[in-house]
Write a structure and sequence with these properties.
This protein is an all-alpha fold and about 140 residues long. The chain is built from 5 helices and no strands. The protein is extended, with a radius of gyration of 23 Å.
Length: about 140
Amino acid sequence: MPLPLLLFILVPALEIAVLIQVGGWLGASWTLVLILVTAMLGYRLLRRQGFETLWRGQQKLARGELPAQELVEGVMLALCGALLLTPGFITDIVGFAGLVPAWRRAVGRRVIAKGMAANSQSRAAGPQVFEGEYEEPRDRLDS
């Protein structure tokens, strides 16, 4: 079974089990309150950190630099935001972990390094040769 499908099945099942346990300890009302509080807190933190990441990216663009780190962090923040807004405590833990700036930057640097390594390996392999006919591009002014 492919990993995404397995996660798609297991994560909700685990979330339901945890929600039942927490509901048994705290009661249904307090469990719902806790779910809403974590979603609102996550939204506020996500919004603040998202704007900070956007601002850092704009500053890099203004200096003529590529905001690769900020782009990766922005994608991570979007994923963490989706996890935080999903009802459940397991997804909240993972979502809040992604809001820790030091952890997010470390993961972002690792993703960029892997991307650069993959890019350099593909360049080292040389240009791709395709079989078949090749047509020279025609200049539009010659037509």
